[in-house]
Specification:
mainly alpha; 1 helix
Length: 97
Amino acid sequence: MRPPPGRHSSRIFDPVLTPPVNFAMLSSSHSAGRLSMLTSFVAQLGISMAAALAVTWAAIQFLSKAWIEDRLKRGLEELKHEQTQQIESPLAHRLTP
């Protein structure tokens, strides 16, 4: 079918075939879509950050506990060694002729 005389063959913007557009409604739905997308992104980011924070916190708790126990163990060993030396030093003088 050929277009009537005086009309373009392109149907990109044909006032007869194109329904009227409510631009206020278009912009609000578009911004609502962006808002929805933004909130879902922030929510996902928040969940990801919360998970990362939980893993980091657990790792710090585990490593700090191990570090504190190691430091206490070393300190206890040094204290035992010093006490052993203090006990043995007077005996060493008495036992040597």
